[in-house]
Please model this.
Amino acid sequence: MWEAALVFGGKMSVMIRTTLAIIGKLINDVLSFVIFSILDVLDLVLCFVYKVIDFFIEAEWKPCYCSSPKEAMSGTGRILVSEKGQSKKIVCLTSTKIQLEEISDTLYTRPSLVAEVSKTTVKELKRRKINDATTMVASINKSTVRSSSTFTVNNTIVEMLQEKIGGHKSHPIPRWSDCDCDTCNSWSNACKDTLFVHTDGPKDNVGDDVLFIHGFISSSAFWTETLFPNFSKSTKSAYRLFAIDLLGFGRSPKPHDSLYTIKEHLDMIERSVLEAHKVKSFHIVAHSLGCILALALAVKYPNSVKSLTLLAPPYFPTPKGEQATQYMMRKVAPRRVWPLIAFGASLACWYEHVSRTICLLICKNHRIWEFLTKLITRNRIKTYLIKGFCCHTHNAAWHTLHNIICGTAGKIEGYLDTVQNRLSCSVHIFHGEDDELIPVECSSNVKTKVPRANVNVVEKKDHITIVVGRQEAFARELEEIWKTSKLKG
Model:
């Protein structure tokens, strides 16, 4: 009798949890639909507001991605070129050469939530029809989407716009909506054209080199305020440690005319670290978005990488029939109010002008937020993390998010294939079990492509606490990885 009561109680408990989960999901879906529908309208309103303010303060309209691709690109001295069946490219004209840079279509193609839900509903209704009708409708839809989302410019237009681009007016530095503090603008005052690099270890290249690459809206402080103080003296005497502020973040340059493509990011890393410090071979440690740059760098220098350590790599294999860039955007920014980190990612990814407003409130006034964080928490690490979170421009964050995270979605699989087939270095992956932004399945996906990768899922840790809060343990783990790779080498 007692056993039957226990079984019954267990079933009831499962039913209650299941019911509560369904109700919670329903509430989240409804709230998300309402809030993001309002944000769709708000973003359009803010578009006009910022155009007016930009015009009165800077005496010109600032092109945005609500505009047509032609207007936005010509306004920045660049032209969008798209050939059928190929990814979009930017043509950048200078006085001496033409450069082609790939950009993500997610900069332009971000349908409103109402349109997205309508499209999904219609697609589901069509799926229920007979196969012939479904096939016919699907082909019509594909042609319609292609024609509406692709802007094609004949290559001869490049020559026609040379005169206009040659007289392009540069923006003031900083712009009115950007921070004007010495930290954020030290690069412009010193006329620097390289990244800010925090170095530690021996001055001469007597041992191994390690490159640390931070994630999105972060800085080198993510490493220097957590790991660097916890490395042993023997490690600091044997390894040169390089922690960079990526282009557009921290104390690195934040050019207004940059599209922050993967080529631009890699070129700056090469110029600021590999060439400037004569680095021939190196270990890489990267977090989140930095993992994409780490993979691209490893593919470019397959014989130079001694070990590859990735924390929370954002790899979502694209299902057949899906567009890689759009699929990635929906995975990292699902337009949900909960969890909060997903809500923040959705604001940053889907709404150009809402996110600019957030940057205006937070980044331009980051000194206030840093002071309040220090006053409330009395925690040095958290203060530096807030500083790294706030020290960027909207232009840098917006383009990096779309052109690196979304824009490289179709390339990551090729990067991983190269790592597996051409690189002999060890590959180590760390992922927080409770990561709500980049789920653990992403690391499992990497393991599928690179079977030799060692995946370590850390219990009760999330996207940030995978390092912060366990920095001493992680420092020991990295030292062991580097030591082992040296012995194998």
User: Anything to note?
Assistant: DSSP finds 20 helices and ten strands in the chain. The first strand starts at residue 78 and ends at 81.
